[in-house]
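Q: Joint fold for the lines below.
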Amino acid sequence: MPEKKISLILKIWRQKNPDQQGKLVTYELSDISSSMSFLEMLDLLNEQLTIKAEEPVAFDNDCREGICGKCGAMVNGTPHGPERETTLCQLHMRHFKDGDTIYIEPFRSVAFPLIKDLVIDRSALDTVIMAGGYISVNAGSAVEANTHPVGRDVAEQAMDSAACIGCGACVAACPNASAMLFTGAKITQLALLPQGQPERKKRAASMVKTMDKLGFGGCTNIGECEKACPKNISITNIARLNHEYMRTILLADEK
Amino acid sequence: MQLDAKIPAGPIAQKWDNRRFEYNLVNPANRRKYTVLVIGTGLAGASAAATLGELGYNVKIFCLQDSPRRAHSIAAQGGINAAKNYQNDGDSVFRLFHDTIKGGDFRSREANVYRLAQLSNLIIDQCVAQGIPFAREYGGTLANRSFGGAQVSRTFYARGQTGQQLLLGAYSSLMRQVALGTVSLFPRRELMDVIVEEGRASGIICRNLINGQLESYNGHSVVLATGGYGNVFHLSTNAMASNVSAGWRAYKRGAGLANPCFVQIHPTCIPISGTHQSKLTLMSESLRNDGRVWVPKQAGDTRDPAKIPENERDYYLERKYPSFGNLVPRDIASRGAKEVCDQQRGVSETGQAVYLDFQDAIQRDGLNTIRYKYGNLFQMYQKITADNPETHPMKIYPAVHYTMGGLWVDYNLMTTIPGLFAIGEVNYSDHGANRLGASALMQGLADGYFVLPYSMGDYLATMGPVALSDTNQPLFKEATESIDNQTALLLKNNNSKKKGLQTVEHYHRKLGKTLWDHCGISRNKEGLQTALASIPEIRAEFWDNCLVPGTGLEFNQSLEKACRVADYLEFSEIMVQDALQREESCGCHLREESMSVDNEAQRDDKNFSHVTVWFHNGKEKTATTKREPLEFELSKPSTRNYK
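A: Joint structure:
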């Protein structure tokens, strides 16, 4: 695809630290190549700000391949911007038109306190994993890998859920700031596999409890999370979370 | 002077057993009395910290990311090797060992590589038990695919996201230990210095990236699991924050740095498209299982690839290497691409690309099969380039990917500083002059799950009960002051009216171009000398004219980057000196002066069958080298032949 150059008006959330008031600041940026990624467009802005001895826009990012889950911002009100199944780093400027105005803001949720500009603290998601997003198997105690056959369809389904990159877009998209897509994806992955069975009930109960405690809201089946997910994690993961949770509660006497 | 690798006695298959028996053990009740500091949460760091925690040690783990799950191991796509021989195709521990030694062009240590091959099977068991959804056959058993440099199918994979799945497995084990209280997690911390007290590593200084404060931590030992230095080239497949700093700071404290010139250039990456580019994206080597690499036979042929008939295409890897074809090791594939582009037969507007074509595979196996294997890679390619690989061949070009060189470690994974261990990509150990595909994940996890937890026990048991270093003592204070001074120097132009100031990025780009041009896919004496002359100039300019906004006591990404680039500007000089002194071609390191008659890399075993280890002698002083001679008892160094 031939390269084009466009100009944009950017309205970016600037906030020096959590204690100070933030606001949208307008920047005009030109000479943006259509083959740039969204983050490379921000790099260009930051280079220009730096040369003018102004403070560049802080934003989290790392792999720039759509897999580490570190980047993310609201672009015109949508997490990771307009393209489906695309992280911010994989969003390319060819999807924008010359003269467009773009609003760029951090992911917002009570559970994701702001650090600076577009940078937020998502360690609450790590805390959810700590509550049971694992299989308790010490190094050295594993059985031979082919001991438990896993049907290809089951492995594929588990992989669909395991593809979650922990970016938090689902939380940012949800009017309730629910983390149930994130939590449901991990619960589903481990509930589907034979290795996940021994801790299945404890896991669902503990992860849901932790999620609630951290200030994430509940799911009311709006579906924004699924739409915003850059890895196409299906909302059926939430159905399974509910199923696993009910199973735990209703069958509580079963050991 | 020679270095002692502390290789155990006995026949190779028994060496690791022998060593494990020799190791002293720490009584389970005493383990909590020892504090181990682990830096980095990639495959090696996370698996090591989790395992040490499981054993009962008191572990502190640090990462510069917001979460341990972001470490760059996550981006590994293709797979992980193991000698399971599930395909019944003749694989064995010895064959995996042999392929890895040969793939590394006989520049790695036999005993380490053999141990790696032995441990490979345990890793797969461990990962499956953690709930990693590896690809399966219809009958429910684990599936495998082929990778470069091997004629057996031994690579385990989870779509094109194997690194992600393995890392999330190690991360989940790590978080379990954090929840249990054996491991304390310190995210958004970057290692700034290693403290060496009375000859032993006894602490670290970190920058808290949220508030800029320097923090001191003490430990009975320190483990660096901080990854490779590919980003010294500015453009590479590494993540933006991947850096050399931890290894470099350790080097300046006395750790030996081995073969820094061994840098793997991966043949299948998305080519550079403009000056704005911030990184290069890898397309997994697994694509070479089904994709065929070609360029037009005629120089300057700019026709659409679909319009170039079969007989006017040059499938140059299949032509030159009929037995391995498109699956030759990475260094050979990269060199092949450069060669045809140098002959003006490269494609795309820049002429710096070759085709990777799936049409034959799609016709043979059907689109659905190909989508099943590579769907997410095709999607990634399309997002970046806006071209569809199902209908148009991919355009690819080599890019800096992995660094085989790194901190020298002995068989116990300890650097030349007692108590300072290095695991994963940051060390030099198992890959010689070229790493085979799907071996990095294997090494990271072998080091973390199954080697370091044993050798660490021995180190601590031998040391006995020793009090932790006092973080208020002068050693920590001096180190902190020296970092503060560096910060002040980096920020000095902040309010200056000086003309001609430039961003950190500017100097990084400049250094990267110098290195790519003179110390990249092929190297020669003159070019390396040119690079050696320019690096100090760029460095001086950087310290004079670099503009870093903000202060040192806040969240400041420009300052983070400036510290890393400052280290690249020093490290690169040693890397180029290393390339200059190694007057042979081996693996990734192609010296144009050392080529065979049929234009292949020519090793010089007589003069270079050793590891070159660099040592720091203080500021402004010349670095000196020591050697670890390489002895090959089981594999016979031969000319690598993939024809």
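Q: Anything notable?
A: Chain A has a mean pLDDT of 96. Chain A has two domains: 5-105, 122-139+146-250.
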